[in-house]
Amino acid sequence: MAKKSRYGTQTRDAGGFIALPWAVIDSPAYMSLSPHAKVLLIEFARQLRGDNNGMLLCSRAYMSERGWKSNDMLTKCRDELLSAKLIHQTVLGHRPNRASWYAVTWIGLDKLNGYDADLSSMFVRGSYRASTIKTQSLSRPTGQESGLLHRPTGQEKRPLSRPTGLSGAIS
């Protein structure tokens, strides 16, 4: 059911929404993320209810219900978000049944019971702004300053003998 304005017109679909500030999206930390890490950040933002920042999940069990199939990809993207300081870990999970908790850093940490004191005390709202992320350089690698690249014409000389390392008949 669509949400109606006070004038009776439909303004948007019903249900919650994700508030992702432009300051986050325009930050170097966000722009340096891989596409998969950006999607995972949206998954974290999807969990926010207004009173649970610091209790967000990224466990395999929870995320598989949201369509994440690869544990390796999930771990890689989570680590990327931690590195960019767009999320912060508040509880260290352990086997067999305690999941780690996380908080997004563009919103203040909510006062909840169960945080690991040493992890939650290091939370800094807005820490993604001071994040020093290595971005890929768009400049030409050294050694190619000429600006002209050689295109093969198909008439280059090829060696007449076999390359070293290959001996015997080829089957």
Describe the structure.
The protein is of the alpha+beta class. 25% of the residues lie in helices and 11% in strands. The longest helix is centred in the first third of the chain and has 13 residues, at 35-47. The strands form 2 sheets. It has a 3-stranded antiparallel beta sheet with strand order 3-5-4. The chain has a two-stranded antiparallel sheet with strand order 1-2. The chain is built from 6 helices and 5 strands. A hairpin with a 5-residue loop joins strand 1 and strand 2. Helix 3 packs across helix 5. The model is unreliable at 135-141 and 143-151 (pLDDT under 50).
Q: What's the gist of this structure?
A:
This protein has 171 residues and is of the alpha+beta class.
* Low-pLDDT sequence parts: 135-141, 143-151
Shape: globular
Radius of gyration: 25 Å
Order of helices and strands: EEHHHEHHEEH
Secondary-structure-derived class = alpha+beta
Largest sheet: 3 strands, antiparallel
Binned, the helix content reads 25-40%
Q: Estimate what percentage of residues fall within beta strands.
A: 5-15%
Structure summary, number of beta strands: 5
- With strands numbered from the N-terminus, the spatial order across the biggest sheet is 3-5-4
Task: Enumerate how many helices there are, as a single number.
Answer: 6
The average pLDDT score comes to 82
Q: Alpha-carbon distance between the termini?
A: 67 Å
